[in-house]
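Bench notes, afternoon.
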Amino acid sequence: MMQLPVDWNPVIETLPQEKIRQLQLKKFKNIFQWTYNHSRFHKQLYDKAPIPYHTLSPDGIITNVNEKWCNTFNYKKEEVVGKSIFDFVIDEAEDQGKEPGDCRETG
């Protein structure tokens, strides 16, 4: 069960248990609502960004793309999620990035 702040202790000791549960539930709902609103905000930042974004798994599988990525490369999101990023790069670029996440220059 969630704990209320320490400075509430004198007040809490005088309240019935049901009132304490109501306060804890209200605090939990507020935290949940704040988290939900912020996650929606960050999702919109990603989806509506003015530059193409993609998210990859450690082995180079596309797990998400934004709208700009789809428009730039003329694909639907459903067509690319779950496929390797190397299915969407030209051969020269693939030679430079042999491992997903490897951004080092080859010389």
